[in-house]
Write a structure and sequence with these properties.
Blueprint (H helix, E strand, L loop, with lengths): L8 E6 L2 E6 L10 H15 L6 E6 L4 E3 L13 H20 L3 E6 L2 E3 L1 H8 L2 E5 L3 E3 L12 H8 L2 H10 L3 E2 H6 L5 E3 L4 H13 L3 H15 L3 H16 L2 H12 L9
Helix pairs in contact: 1-2, 2-3, 3-4, 4-5, 8-9
Length: 263
Amino acid sequence: MTESPAPRLLRHENGAVARLVLNRPAAGNSLSFELAADLRAALADLAERRDIKVIIISGAGGRIFCAGHDLNEFTGDPDPAFLEQDFDGLGALMQAVMNAPQIVIAEVTGVATAAGCELVAACDLALAASTARFATPGVNIGFWCHTPQIQLSRNIGRKAAMLMLATGELFPASHARDIGLINAVHDPDDLPAAVDALAARIASKSAATLARGKRSFNAQAAMSVPDAYCFAKAEAIANVAHADAKEGIAAFLEKRPPQWEDG
């Protein structure tokens, strides 16, 4: 009897937290066209779930978080139409992470390179093991990391991004933390508990407020300061009228835990 192949993407849920696990460890959890599509589909499905407030993205196997593109798809003379679809799909994936109403956390063990590093940067938060390393090594094989530079330049600044892009070097987790690519570094044995604790803290908040806040944060970042303040004023006025804001303010004044609409 032939065994069915392992799923490319694993999905688990625990209360208000969903975990998506890249499950191609033998291929470095690389983002094949199919795995990127699976991730987009999972994110689209979770976007409709008001009961899910946090999404964790991790890689199976522990050795590599994600090695980026599956280079087996680029050998020889790849079909230009496939390449266009592939890069469109990858861009759509990163934007799906950014546009998800949930807070998305990257749990990074091992190596995150090229589009894998891009995925870390696209996530709202990222925690890494002290053994994790980060790189955009395309330059080493004659291929500039064109799409990773989009997330890196917007997350860690131009010079820190260019250092990664132009050298292709592997940088330790401590460097990734120092330049703002990740939030914190943990002992490998402590990382899962640290990620779960962070997810639980965030999941205790109002789902509506988290979704509104993430959308507001990303939108204002692309605006001029005057435009951002006009935008923030409108968002704040709409927010304060929401049931969860009314409940939160009342709970604070009455010195009791709030009871959110979505639990």
